[in-house]
C-alpha cells in the first residue's frame, strides 16, 4: 500500500507543466457553485413537474426509463441543503429524508447522520409537523448527545407541543411516530404563479385537451406565403398545432448549415439574459429567467439576413419593427418560467424604449 501510494504521489508530482497550465486556462469554463445550485434547482423543478419522488430519482428510475447514474447520500444531502439555503423547507424535507433512508440502509457517506437529522428535524418543524420534529430531534440527541442545538431544539419543540395539546383541550393525542416522509406527506407550498399548475399539467400531457371536433379542423399543408415569389418554388411545410390561440409549426425552416452558422456567430456573444421590468421598463436579470442570450443583426452575416427574410416571407410580417434575432442557451439548470411574451394592461410602457408597439407574434426556432 505504501509503495502504491508513493507511486501515485510520484506521478502527481511529475505531471507535465503544460497540463497544469491548460487546467488554469480552462478553469473559467468549469462548473462553479452557481452552476451546481442551478442544476439542483432544475432537478427540483423536474421533480415537481413530473411528480417524482427523490428515491426514484436517486436510483435513476424515471418514467419509462432506467439510468445507471445514481445520487449518493452526499448528493441528496447537497440537494436538501440547496433548498434549505433558499428557505425551501418542502424540498429540504424530501431530500434530507432520502439521504437519511440511504444512511439507514448502510450507504457510505462523508456527511454524518447527525448532519442530516439536524436539517431534517428543523425543516419538518418549519412545515408545521411538531410531533415528527420531536421524534426526529430525539433521534438526533441519541445519535449525537453533544450536539450544540439538538437539546435546546427538543425542549423548545416539546414546550410548543404541550401548549398545542392544552389549547386543543384534548385528553388523548395520537402517538407520535417517525414513519418515513414520502412525496405527498406534506402539501407543496402555493406558488406565486397562478399558471404554474396548468403549465406543469401540460408538460405531463394532461390539462387542456383538444376535442375531436376541434382536432378535425387542424391540417398540414404546403405554405407559400400568399404566393410569395421566394416560396412558390420551395413552399414550406406548415402544421396546425392549436386553434386558439393559433399556433403553427413550420418544418425544416432552417438548414443544418444555417443552424450551425447562427450558433457559431452567437457563441462568443452569449451573456446572462435579462428581462424588462414591468414598472420601469429597464432591462435587468431575474431568477425566473436563467439563461445566456445573444442578439444578432442582419448585417452580422448573410445567413442572418437570409433567415430574417425567410421569417418575413413565412409570416407576412416585417422585421423592420421586430426585435433582433435572439439566440438563447439554457445550459444544464436554466429556465424561463411561464410568462406572457406580450405586455399586458399593467405593463403599458414595456416596449416604449424600442419605439414600437406591443408584440403581436413570436417566431421560435428550435
Quick take:
The chain has 366 residues and is mostly helical.
Topology:
Elements: H1 2-13, H2 17-26, H3 33-49, H4 54-58, E1 61-62, E2 65-66, H5 73-85, H6 89-104, H7 113-126, H8 130-143, H9 150-168, H10 196-203, H11 212-215, E3 220-223, H12 229-232, E4 236-242, E5 247-251, H13 256-266, E6 271-272, E7 275-276, E8 283-284, E9 289-290, E10 292-296, H14 302-315, E11 325-329, E12 335-336
Antiparallel strand pairs: 1-2, 3-4, 4-5, 6-10, 7-8, 9-12, 10-11
Helix pairs in contact: 3-5, 5-6, 6-7, 7-8, 8-9
Structure commentary:
There is one protein chain. This protein is mainly α and 366 residues long. Helix content is 44%, strand content 11%. The chain contains 14 helices and 12 strands. It has helices at residues 2-13, 17-26, 33-49, 54-58, 73-85, 89-104, 113-126, 130-143, 150-168, 196-203, 212-215, 229-232, 256-266, 302-315, and strands at residues 61-62, 65-66, 220-223, 236-242, 247-251, 271-272, 275-276, 283-284, 289-290, 292-296, 325-329, 335-336. The strands form 5 sheets. The protein has a 3-stranded antiparallel sheet with strand order 3-4-5, with no helix packed on it. α3 packs across α5, α7 packs antiparallel against α8 (130-143) and α8 packs antiparallel against α9. The protein starts with a helix and ends in a 30-residue tail after the last strand.
Say how many strands there are.
12
> How far apart are the first and last residues' alpha carbons, in Å?
54 Å
Along the chain, the helix and strand elements come as HHHHEEHHHHHHHEHEEHEEEEEHEE
Helix content: 40-55%
Overall mean confidence score, pLDDT = 86
**Structural class by secondary-structure content:** mainly alpha
Amino acid at each position: 500500500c505504501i509503495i502504491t501510494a508513493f507511486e501515485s504521489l510520484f506521478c502527481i508530482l511529475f505531471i507535465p507543466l503544460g497540463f497544469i497550465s491548460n487546467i488554469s486556462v480552462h478553469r473559467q469554463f468549469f462548473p462553479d457553485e452557481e452552476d451546481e445550485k442551478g442544476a439542483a434547482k432544475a432537478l427540483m423543478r423536474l421533480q415537481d413537474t413530473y411528480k417524482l419522488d427523490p428515491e426514484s430519482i436517486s436510483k435513476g428510475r424515471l418514467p419509462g426509463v432506467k439510468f445507471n447514474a445514481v445520487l449518493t447520500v452526499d448528493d441528496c444531502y447537497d440537494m436538501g441543503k440547496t433548498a434549505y439555503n433558499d428557505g425551501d423547507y418542502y424540498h429540504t424535507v424530501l431530500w434530507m429524508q432520502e439521504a437519511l433512508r440511504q444512511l439507514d440502509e448502510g450507504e457510505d457517506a462523508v456527511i454524518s447522520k447527525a448532519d442530516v437529522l439536524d436539517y431534517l428535524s428543523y425543516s419538518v418543524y418549519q412545515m408545521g409537523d411538531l410531533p415528527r420534529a420531536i421524534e426526529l430531534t430525539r433521534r438526533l440527541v441519541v445519535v449525537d448527545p453533544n450536539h450544540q442545538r439538538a437539546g435546546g431544539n427538543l425542549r423548545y419543540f416539546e414546550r410548543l407541543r404541550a401548549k398545542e395539546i392544552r389549547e386543543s383541550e384534548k385528553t388523548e393525542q395520537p402517538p407520535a411516530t417517525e414513519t418515513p416522509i414520502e412525496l405527498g406527506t406534506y402539501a407543496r407550498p402555493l406558488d406565486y404563479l397562478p399558471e404554474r399548475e396548468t403549465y406543469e399539467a401540460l408538460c405531463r400531457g394532461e390539462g387542456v385537451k383538444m376535442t375531436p371536433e376541434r382536432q378535425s379542423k387542424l391540417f398540414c399543408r404546403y405554405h407559400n406565403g400568399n404566393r410569395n415569389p421566394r416560396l412558390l418554388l420551395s413552399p414550406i411545410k406548415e402544421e396546425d398545432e392549436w386553434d386558439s390561440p393559433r399556433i403553427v409549426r413550420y418544418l425544416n425552416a432552417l438548414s443544418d448549415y444555417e443552424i450551425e452558422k447562427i450558433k457559431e456567430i452567437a457563441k462568443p456573444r452569449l451573456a446572462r439574459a435579462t428581462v424588462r421590468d414591468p414598472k420601469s421598463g429597464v432591462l435587468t436579470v431575474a431568477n425566473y429567467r436563467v439563461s445566456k442570450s445573444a442578439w444578432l443583426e442582419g448585417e452580422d452575416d448573410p445567413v442572418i439576413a437570409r433567415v430574417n427574410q425567410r421569417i418575413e416571407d413565412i409570416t407576412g410580417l416585417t422585421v423592420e419593427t421586430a426585435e433582433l434575432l435572439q439566440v438563447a442557451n439554457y445550459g444544464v439548470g436554466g429556465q424561463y418560467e411561464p410568462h406572457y411574451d406580450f405586455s399586458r394592461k399593467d405593463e403599458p410602457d414595456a416596449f416604449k424604449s424600442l419605439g414600437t408597439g406591443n408584440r403581436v407574434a413570436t417566431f421560435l426556432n428550435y
